[in-house]
Amino acid sequence: MCLVALDPYTHESAWILETAGRILEHYSPADIRVGWLATTDEDGCRQFLGPWAERFLTFPDPEREAVTALGVERLPALVHIRSDGHLNVVDGWEPTAWRAVAEQLSANLAWTRPMIPRPGDPTPYAGTDVKGD
Known about the structure:
The protein has helices at 11-27, 42-49, 52-55, 65-69, 95-109; strands at residues 2-6, 34-38, 57-60, 74-75, 77-81, 87-91, 128-129. It is α/β, with parallel strands linked by helices.
């Protein structure tokens, strides 16, 4: 499974929405489940994600239990959960690190790699603390 974890109450997660959607869209036909993990309730997911909420699996996490259990420290985050339980988590928007996860994912799936970053994507940023501090 490949998830993008977001906090819909921050600018940092809003900045990456289109880029993350493009990456998830790239992998949606592959042999992997892709989706959103948003630190809000179902209504908040629909409001923040808009049509993206209908395109991919969407998991509300209003108490931040899932992001905490996955070891996410900063949002947005890219989370790859392998079938053997191994986690690969990239906190914040660090294009080089997201690209490394995508390269590994593509190799495992025998799938093409998305361009990360591509022109128009945000510049790197650390994101916000998952604890809301």
